[in-house]
Amino acid sequence: MTDYRNNCRFKRFIKPFFIHESSHSKRHVHARTLLFSILLSLFVSQSTACSLFPSAENEFPGSKALTVSASGHGKRHTVESILKPQAPGAMTAANSDGSIVLDYSNTADGYIMIKDTHDTTTQIQIKGPDGVTYPFPLNSHDFTAFPLSHGNGHYEVSVLEQISGNNYAVSLSQGFDVSLKDEFGPYLYPNQYVKYTDSSNAVLLGRKLSAQSDSDLSYINNVYNYILKHVKYDDVQAASIQPNYIPDADTTLRTGKGICFDYAVLMTAMLRSQNIPTRLEVGYVGKVYHAWISVYTKDKGWINNTIYFDGKNWSLMDPTLAANNSNAAIRKFTGDGSNYVVRYLY
């Protein structure tokens, strides 16, 4: 039996780096003592570079990607328009020259919007009421959504711009209180890691699968089975993944291959676009850093650590594991779910 936990290719890019405060004082912080420096490079390199499983030989249908086969009779209501993050400008903060703007008008919906028009490497830190700091890369000049995954309470957001190498300056910081009007809000919108629009192929495919589904559970099962059939693990990509990697659901759909982060993001996009609350989760499966999902349905509540439906019962389902191994191998490895330890929710 293959020991999947020892097959992960870790690429650690942990280096000391400097944060320059607005007072121009400089302090050197080692990566082990500063969460941001660790996760700035470690998050993607670990969570996505895990070559956990032998590849499955599934041929992707290419231009026929939207020709689908699914179980069900189409009783489910299909959502025809996604929830779109907005930056209305009602509550904002900006740096001195206005090149960086934080719009926190819609915190009640579970997200903020940030844009930086500078041509520099930008990192975002979001610290929630639980004291955990989430790092994000920002690679667009347009407003980009970032989730407020910590629930209700006080948040602190910092925008850091690269000066050179591992030297970053805090260009903007802002605190605010959050009271969610819907606890599922952070898991219903696209964001920096789960990007999609109404015209995304992943969204269009989701609508086709939904139209052939009887219920939310039926739709989840159809999405799951489609990904298992048409996406295989990409060992080459896993071996060469770079820090600050951001998956693209349509690219995974088009190429028919990806790493664990790609699998999880594709399924998350397809489920959220049909108004099914879906948590993109990053953490450890045993000793392996990995990405998976959990979903919420009205009938079942949160189905944690993802799910597998055998026609009668739901059990653990991890898109990467399931696409590359037998059901027996999956269940022997995942067990009762205790192997899954969540570190971040997106």
UniProtKB/TrEMBL annotation:
One of its GO terms (molecular function) is peptidase activity. InterPro entries: Papain-like_cys_pep_sf, Transglutaminase-like. The keyword Protease applies. Pfam families: Transglut_core (PF01841). It comes from the Bacteria. Coiled coil: none annotated. Residues 252-321 form the Transglutaminase-like domain. Keywords: Hydrolase, Protease. The keyword Transferase does not apply. One of its GO terms (biological process) is proteolysis. This is Transglutaminase-like enzyme, predicted cysteine protease. The lineage of its organism: Bacteria, Bacillati, Bacillota, Clostridia, Eubacteriales.
